[in-house]
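Build the 3D complex.
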Amino acid sequence: MLAEIITIGDEILIGQIVDTNSAWMAEKLNHAGIRIKQISSVSDNREHILTALAEAAGRADIILITGGLGPTKDDITKKTLAEYFGVGMVMNDAALENVSRIFKKYNRPLLEVNRLQAQVPENCEVILNKNGTAPGMWFNHEGKVYVSMPGVPFEMKYMVEEEVIPKLQATFKLPVIIHNTILTAGEGESFLAEKIADIEDSLPAHIKLAYLPKLGQVRLRLSAFGDDAEKLQAEVNIYADKIAERASYAVMAREDIPLEKVLLNTMAERGLTLSAAESCTGGYLSHMLTQHAGSSKVFLGGVVSYANQLKQDILGVNPATISVFGTVSGETVTEMVEGALRRFKSDYAVALTGIAGPDGGTAEKPVGTVWIAAANANKTVIKKFTFGEKRLQNIERSAVGAFFMLITLLRENGN
Amino acid sequence: MLAEIITIGDEILIGQIVDTNSAWMAEKLNHAGIRIKQISSVSDNREHILTALAEAAGRADIILITGGLGPTKDDITKKTLAEYFGVGMVMNDAALENVSRIFKKYNRPLLEVNRLQAQVPENCEVILNKNGTAPGMWFNHEGKVYVSMPGVPFEMKYMVEEEVIPKLQATFKLPVIIHNTILTAGEGESFLAEKIADIEDSLPAHIKLAYLPKLGQVRLRLSAFGDDAEKLQAEVNIYADKIAERASYAVMAREDIPLEKVLLNTMAERGLTLSAAESCTGGYLSHMLTQHAGSSKVFLGGVVSYANQLKQDILGVNPATISVFGTVSGETVTEMVEGALRRFKSDYAVALTGIAGPDGGTAEKPVGTVWIAAANANKTVIKKFTFGEKRLQNIERSAVGAFFMLITLLRENGN
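Done.
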């Protein structure tokens, strides 16, 4: 079963927002056995929307549309859909009740533009929007299903999970797609590819292997297409096992999880705690950890010691160390990590100090120079990295480097 | 001048990665006066790529392609482009030299798959990739320009900024697009729309107004299309001034910057410093600030006090306060913010404590309950928020709420 996603909104085409909806929807649909043929972002323009709808319907059976359902004049999706289907608009009682309920809840007067949000093309089935005022709309038209949803992520997500996917499952007999992902780190894409070339060559036509490199990690993803979930799963597992065995030195996880989740899982299993002393990453590393539910079992917290005064006051870094070796040095990062262990009473600690850029570099320590330390009560490991010139990238790479060092230290001490 | 962006990669269509490249490219091209007609994401599939190229060429003059240039077997963009143009492949000396240089730099042996990365369709002009091994490719074909670039963001970004845009500017006479964005906060989209309805109705046909709502903020974006940059700019400014005056109570910035940057700019102008005590946001608020170059002038750092022990040890929160009122309470957040002011010696401080979810909620304090405090030496303001059930959203909304409270407190004390 093929689907297409059309996201509508000038804000996407001028780059003011990143379309995160499509990836989220694609993942959910894939797990339900629906393949996304194409994702298209088009403008808030009548002709363009009409063309995109017709093109998508020529390629796919399910067309999912987000965006352009707001109360303001630039939002024209709804009336353009009515035009596309050749129908008029009607007021929907359930949708109007929903809009009224929301405005009442926030104690706001119901404006005419808001009341009009409950108007829908007369051939649609309304999907109630529990989290917002714009109703979702389901259309059956010439053998295809069209679903129009708001572009606001948490409104759309609720609809997809609770309403759209169950309804699609009830409507179509869905084929099966099985993915099996292996997370590797510390080894380049082409070296991995060479290592597993013969396994890749032996894959049957209905199983594909993809390499997804990102910041020192490569995810290897096997995808199998067919009808029999159990058989496909067994088949894919055999190849995944072969690959994981061959590349075992680099395998971080046998599931599609980010590196920091590997760290959290490993530490949670062993009942260990972690703290952080972040300078150049400025809270990013802590955020990567704490974005995951349950991280508080492992992560006690830490300090964002952007100013040197905090490195001294909170972590107990010796001012002489900073003045002799500099803030960005192996000596300072060692005192930071050992200070964090002591001060926050955690089993493991991590510390980072570096020059994220764009300013602050010198000939000796250019932008991108980062010292990272990982430690437990028995051992402190430090490492100097030389990343590039881009601030955000240096921050991301530092965090990934730190997670990798922590996992490596944990593995030395485990098993 | 119209362009289209085609991003190639199964990883996008199964939702394993979010396509951030397109928004970035769209923004850069827009500023150069090139409008993006459509963004399409297609799979690593020969027929699909060929169709997408032909469709895009039917709508636009410039076709920008990213992805599918890696050394591994799933990457087929290059040979598919050669097929599309009906040409063979040749080894490019400059590209080969570049690949060799990079492998030498990292002291890695040059594999055959890497050497083959220097092979390109014979009708292309190579765009050197300073940050990676896959060359960029520029094609002139039947009056259209095609540019193929790697999907790795920092490789693509360098090429677009340093090579592609200058070359497009040299090739085409580009029209002008002027944007003027106003950032508002604390007021809903439909209320803003009603407030400025008459101004919106008076806009000439070549100026469009868009509402971009996100997490309690609405950006109002005016876009003008034409030939005379100076005239358009003057015209757009008049309407932007009218709107900003009418909505002045909610206007945070007269430029397209995020809310935390408004805060940083305001504090930097006044020479003020800030520290943070984050519990439920777990480092996210600090990261939002420190992602911006120059943030260290304002932001001293702070503590991620995930564990209660840290709230007591570092911030001096009284254990009795926590046991009587709870970790998530006005009393605790007050002691946190005042502890941060004292401990980190900053002019302003912010503190957050809440239940991000999905666990930890109670009937009295459900998931999404967040207390935020903003303070300076003279005044502490606290506020209780009740957000929703989604962890990441609660984290984001908390940070935005905190920035809004800090800006409000600064405005009371400013001018």
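Chain A touches chain B through 107 residues (CB under 8 Å).
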